[in-house]
């Protein structure tokens, strides 16, 4: 992501799509446990809140501590590495949530969804 705004939009979109997907599936197929759906939606909400809270970070150096060109390079490298680490953690959490979603769906529902995808 090139800036914080785009990163926040990305997190909102992914979490919203995950929540919408599990809710649509639970309403379309009545045999999905409601308690599992509630737990998964709560996990998605907490993932979104935690990730958005971690996006706002600050560079710990000041421009007077370095030369102008060095400061910009160091700040850019810092933000890139922080964003990459944050996205890696976010994607790992999304994978865990997707595993929970797949585990919550009964086998016949998964078979129907696989057939519809083909």
Describe the structure concisely.
The protein has helices spanning 4-28, 34-55, 68-104, 107-117.
Description of the structure:
- This protein has 118 residues and is mainly alpha-helical.
- The protein has one domain.
- 81% of the residues lie in helices and 0% in strands.
- It is built from four helices and no strands.
- The protein has helices at 4-28, 34-55, 68-104, 107-117.
- Helix 1 (4-28) packs antiparallel against helix 2 and helix 2 runs antiparallel to helix 3 (68-104).
- The longest helix is centred in the C-terminal third of the chain and has 37 residues, at 68-104.
- The protein is elongated.
- What is the succession of H and E elements? HHHH
Number of helices: 4
Averaged pLDDT, please? 90
How would you classify the helix and strand content by structural class?
A: mainly alpha
Shape: elongated
Instruction: Provide the gyration radius in Å.
Output: 19 Å
Low-confidence stretches: none
Whole-number count of domains: 1
Number of strands: 0
Helix coverage percent of residues?
over 70%
Q: Determine the N-to-C terminus distance.
A: 32 Å
Please outline the major beta sheet: none
Q: Give the strand content.
A: under 5%
């Amino acid at each position: 992501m090139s800036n914080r705004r785009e990163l926040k939009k990305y997190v909102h979109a992914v979490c919203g799509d995950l929540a919408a997907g599990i809710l649509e599936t639970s309403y379309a197929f009545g045999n999905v446990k409601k308690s599992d759906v509630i737990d998964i939606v709560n996990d998605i909400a907490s993932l979104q809140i935690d990730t958005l809270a971690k996006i706002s970070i600050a560079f710990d150096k000041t421009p007077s501590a370095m030369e102008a060109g060095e400061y910009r390079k160091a700040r850019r490298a810092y933000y890139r590495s922080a964003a990459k680490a944050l996205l890696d953690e976010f994607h790992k959490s999304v994978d865990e949530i997707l595993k929970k979603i797949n585990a919550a769906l009964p086998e016949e529902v998964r078979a129907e969804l696989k057939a519809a995808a083909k």
